[in-house]
Automatic annotation (TrEMBL):
Keywords: Sigma factor, Transcription, Transcription regulation
Natural source organism: Methylocucumis oryzae
Protein name as annotated: RNA polymerase sigma factor
Example of a GO biological process term: DNA-templated transcription initiation
Matching Pfam families: Sigma70_r2, Sigma70_r4_2
Keyword Transcription assigned: yes
Amino acid sequence: MIRDNEQAQNFRVQHEMNSDDGLLMQRIAAKDRAAFTQFYHGYAPRIGKFLIASLKSKDLVDEVVNEVMLTVWQKAESYDPNQGKLSSWVLGIAHNKCLKLLERNRRYQTDETIDELAVYDADLDADDAVLHAVLVDNNNPERIHIGKQTGMALTVALQQLSFEHRTVLELTFIEQCSYQEIATITGCPVNTVKTRVFHARKKLADLLAERGIYLGG
């Protein structure tokens, strides 16, 4: 009974959020610049963090973010809050544009040699904290050092994954997306998403183990 009540409450909260997002998109569709500015400031940094591990270039990230924003400005009316969260719709646009850019620029794909000293680290804050917060103890400088080292190793390991594997891990653990939401964003069946997450986690664990880092047990 308690579980049913929690599910009902979560559904109501999500429905209200989707309704608010729907109203925001309606305003943008009507070319309300204040609404678009609100959307931009809310989503541009989030999209950028989602893209940087794949594109490895701030200029390319900015290019894709601008393309996503242009698409939202031009096609805001196509967002349907009854079909899912605004974040899933937006990240789906970003994912598709990133994939097309990678196809045009093969040299930016993840099979290139990675220079660990050149890893993009401009936003090693809130989102990265999600990945290694359990390793950090603000009252213990040694654990802080270990946490940061592990965070950097994790960043490098993520860049060594394929685009598909890295994407599902970022959506799962940073964006906190469900399998269904990831399927919507990537355009893949849910079972494919589950398979990718399984293999991506195993590959990531293997890469970290090569560096003497063992997580989750």
